[in-house]
Amino acid sequence: MDYSLAWLSYRRLPFYEEKEYFQKLYVQGEDGITSSAVYEICRGAEEILGIRTEIVRLPVSVGNEKSEVKEGIYLFLDSNGPSGGGYRIFEEKGVIWITAAEPEGLLYGSFELIRQVQRERTLKGLELLRIPENPLRMLNHWDNLDGSIERGYSGKSFFFRDNEVLVGKRTEDYARLAASVGINGVVINNVNVTERATKLITCEYAISLKRMGEVFSKYGIRLYLSLNFAAPIELGGLATADPEAMEVREWWQAQMKETFRNIPSLGGFLVKADSEGRPGPFTYDRTQAQGANMLAEAVKPYGGIIIWRCFVYNCTQDWRDQKTDRARSAYDYFMPLDGDFHENVILQIKNGPMDFQVREPVSPLFGALSKTNQILEVQIAQEYTGQQKHVCYLIPQFKEILGFHTRCREEGDTVADIISGRCFSRRNCGMAAVANTGSDSNWTGHDLAAANWYGFGRLAFEPSLSAEDIAREWCECTFGTNAQVVHAVCKILMMSWPAYEKYTSPLGIGWMVNPNNHYGPSVDGYEYDRWGTYHRADHLGIGVERGKAGTGFAQTYLEPNASIYEEAETCPEELLLFFHYIPYTYMLKSGKTLIQHIYDSHFEGVEDVEKIIGLWEGLRELVPGEIFDRVKLRMEHQLESSLEWRDQINSYFYRKSFIADEKGRTIY
Ligand code: GCU
């Protein structure tokens, strides 16, 4: 095997004292998912404890008769048990029960049990009740049919190569890893659907996609595809893709009939329309709702859903135009349509109004939309946050987003409340992450980036977990329970996002990256580009005025957030330059001027990277040599890159402002 199993690469624990439970596994039901649960327990027991578990098949009635119960583990489907993928695990008199209303719960409970063993926890007296908060917990892969991955930083696609769909051992191991953290939906192809990828919905790919769907189903994962809105033209030879044209509607209906017949386990489609050159309903003067609903009707007979992305904006904004604001666009396009979407349409909204920057406010659509199904889209592929060359653990960022009070109600108004469906009583909702995996032997390029994959799944399942708890879990499963390792790795992870923020673009301004590849500093790269992502720095100050005097974006938030963002004095400082143009001499709450803050934070960011390297150095003998070296190499590169960021940003602002660093450090 030319790849590892990441956090499922089990280490032998010869001294684990509670092996006995694993001698026998009692199970009812023989469906695919329950069989996977059985397989996972047996595999964990064998690889970690060296035990060959005996599987005892039970008739459905057993389990209620406690007298019949023998020592061991029971996988027990109980219609009164936790549902929606939830499970209960408890230990009583030498018996471990995993109970759930559906097989998915048994599978998640089995992975949890193995995790407890990996983490060397005692199973005696164990009592856990877990119910996933978000109905949909999805990964979006931006994989292309030629095997490349858009914004992929860990090798090639393991779903596609040379226009073929790959289904094999790796597909299965991927499904195991994803399911182990509770992922239940996967979109395998890029949202930018062009050329051959348009054909994924046709017979040409039916056999392999059907097989892939089956592999996923055994692990409780539904297969989804991204589709091309212009398919009626490109595949069907029609003259139009107008969602209101009868021939277009009929074409989609016929095509969906065929597609769902070919791939019965298909969950539905993800659609990027009218965005960055992709076709969509705007071409025909139709709304986003008309486009989405037309597709929703075509997939409805098969229980399919349409996940429609809100990443719709004008990417050719002129620099002289101070009113048009990319940040506003999703809100402006979608807010008036609240309530117009069919029940099987879900709007997928990026966490911020721009594009996965290291710091952005939460999209104002959260809280504003009250009659529409919603998915929160985050990105664990670190497109703008170091591209899996820099360590940047993003779970703390996601925690902040989920905890944001939208003020749509007095209580229960956070993003987590909305996307779980609690706030507006909705079923079709959840969380999606742009995936960070590829064919690299460790799946994620940077070994520590696996914490983002693991963490996303765990957080989507259980948003109340803390970022530290998730880091610790991942670390113990991956590296074992050695206290020194766990302490150092968790510290590195928890320092990493703030460090990245410090040495890159300051106070929410974002975008000071090289255009196109989005890596490394280029302060004015986007300033002189056409994408409408300006920072507006001049010799007096920097920032985009988004209060009433500017683009008015602050006013898209519900009160009191609108007023808080409106004024520089009340705006959270980490977002100050996102919302306001601020003079370099402006005094921050820390007592530092803006310019001094910029200098200081850039020096600090580099120092943090040096600390991170020091912490990792201390693990030389304690983590596998191959991983140690791989990570070390990336960290050395990260240091170089952070120095480049520091020097370019500081020099830029020194030369713009003519204000010297109070501490007299070298700024070129
Ligand atoms: C970003 C990214 C693109 C991607 C787009 C999207 O702009 O750079 O590669 O296609 O987001 O989310 O659709």
From TrEMBL:
One GO term describing the cellular component: extracellular region
Domain Glycosyl hydrolase family 67 C-terminal as annotated: residue spans: 444-665
SUPFAM superfamilies: (Trans)glycosidases, beta-N-acetylhexosaminidase-like domain
Keyword tags: Hydrolase
Domain Glycosyl hydrolase family 67 catalytic: 117-443
GO molecular function annotation: alpha-glucuronidase activity; xylan alpha-1,2-glucuronosidase activity
InterPro entries: A-glucoronidase_C_sf (IPR037054), GH (IPR017853), Glyco_hydro_67_aGlcAse (IPR011395), Glyco_hydro_67_C (IPR011099), Glyco_hydro_67_cat (IPR011100), Hex-like_dom2 (IPR029018)
Keyword flag Manganese: no
Entries under Pfam families matching the protein: Glyco_hydro_67C (PF07477), Glyco_hydro_67M (PF07488)
Catalytic residues identified in the record: 276 (proton donor), 355 (proton acceptor), 383 (proton acceptor)
Biological process according to GO: xylan catabolic process
Gene3D superfamilies: Alpha-glucuronidase, C-terminal domain (3.90.1330.10), Chitobiase/beta-hexosaminidase domain 2-like (3.30.379.10), Glycosidases (3.20.20.80)
PANTHER family xrefs: ALPHA-GLUCURONIDASE A (PTHR39207:SF1)
Name of the protein described by the UniProt record: Xylan alpha-(1->2)-glucuronosidase
Native species: Anaerocolumna chitinilytica
